[in-house]
C-alpha cells in the first residue's frame, strides 16, 4: 500500500504552519513548488559529493594563498629574487642608453664631414662590419615579414 495518505494531525500542522508563515517564506515555498526548481535541487543533491570535494580543494587553496600572502619572509625572498633577476638586465639597458647618449653627443660635437675615403677606412673596423651585418640581417627580416603580410592578404 502506498504512503500517499496523510495523517490528519500532519495535515493540520501543515495548514497551521502555512497560515502563520511570513510572506517571504511563502515566496520560498512557492519557488520550491516549481518543477524546474525541484529539478535543480535534485541535480544539486546528486552532485553534493563533487561539490564537497571542490569546496575542500578551494578552502585549501584559499588557506595556502592566505599563508603565502601574509608570509613576510617569503615576500621578501621573492622581491630579492626578482631584483637579482632584473638587475643585470637593467644594468645592461642603462649601459646601452648611456652609450647611445654619448655617441649622440660626439656626433653632434664633431662637425667634420666624412668623405668617401673616410667611409672606406671605417669599413675596415670590425665593429662597423658587425653593425653592418646586423643592420643587413635586420632589414632582411623586416622585408620577409612585409612579404608574408602581403601574401596573407
Residue fraction in strands: under 5%
Q: Give me the strand/helix succession.
A: HHHHHHH
**End-to-end distance:** 77 Å
The radius of gyration computed from the alpha-carbon positions, rounded to a whole number of angstroms, is 39 Å
Structural class: mainly alpha
Total strands: 0
Relative helix content: over 70%
Shape: elongated
Number of helices: 7
Query: What's the pLDDT, averaged over the residues?
Result: 85
Q: Which residues sit in consecutive blocks of at least 5 with pLDDT less than 50?
A: 1-16
| Biggest β-sheet strands, sense, barrel | none
In words, what does this structure look like?
This protein is mainly alpha-helical. It has seven helices and no strands. The longest helix is centred in the middle third of the chain and has 38 residues, at 72-109. The chain is elongated, with a radius of gyration of 39 Å. The chain starts with 7 loop residues before the first helix and ends with a helix.
Short description:
The protein is mainly alpha-helical and 153 residues long.
SSE arrangement:
Elements: H1 8-19, H2 23-33, H3 35-46, H4 48-69, H5 72-109, H6 116-123, H7 126-152
Observed structural traits:
elongated; disordered N terminus
Amino acid at each position: 500500500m502506498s504512503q500517499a495518505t496523510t495523517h490528519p494531525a500532519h495535515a493540520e500542522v501543515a495548514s497551521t504552519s502555512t497560515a502563520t508563515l511570513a510572506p517571504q517564506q511563502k515566496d520560498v515555498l512557492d519557488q520550491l513548488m516549481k518543477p524546474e526548481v525541484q529539478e535543480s535541487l535534485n541535480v544539486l543533491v546528486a552532485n553534493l559529493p563533487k561539490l564537497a570535494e571542490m569546496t575542500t580543494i578551494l578552502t585549501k587553496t584559499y588557506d595556502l594563498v592566505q599563508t603565502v600572502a601574509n608570509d613576510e619572509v617569503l615576500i621578501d625572498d621573492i622581491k630579492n629574487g626578482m631584483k637579482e633577476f632584473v638587475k643585470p638586465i637593467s644594468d645592461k639597458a642603462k649601459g646601452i642608453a648611456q652609450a647611445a647618449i654619448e655617441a649622440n653627443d660626439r656626433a653632434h660635437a664633431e662637425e667634420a664631414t666624412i668623405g668617401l675615403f673616410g667611409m672606406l677606412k671605417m669599413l675596415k673596423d670590425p665593429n662597423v662590419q658587425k653593425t653592418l651585418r646586423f643592420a643587413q640581417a635586420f632589414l632582411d627580416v623586416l622585408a620577409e615579414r612585409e612579404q608574408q603580410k602581403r601574401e596573407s592578404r
